[in-house]
Amino acid sequence: MEDVRKSFLRFALAACAIIAIFSVAQIAFAYTYSGVLQLGSTGSSVTSLQSRLGISPTTGNFDYATRAAVVTFQLSKGLSADGVVGPATGRALEVTVVKPVPAPAPSPQPIPAPTPSPYPAGCASSSGYSSTTGKPCNGTPVQQSPYQAGCTSTYGFSITTGISCSIPVGCDSRDGYSSVTGLSCDGPAYTTPLPQGCTSRQGYSATTGAACINGVTTAPLRGPRGTLEHVAKAAGYEGRKISEHSTNAYFAGYVLTGEEFSDIRITGFDIGIEFAKGDASASLGKYAKNINVLANGTKVGTVDVANMSKDGDTYTAKIPLYGAVLRSNQATYFYLSADTEDNISKSNADNTWTITLEQIRYMDGLGNTHTDSSRGDIGADGATEFHFQPIDN
Question: Helix, strand, coil % (nearest 5) of the chain?
Answer without folding.
Answer: 15, 30, 55
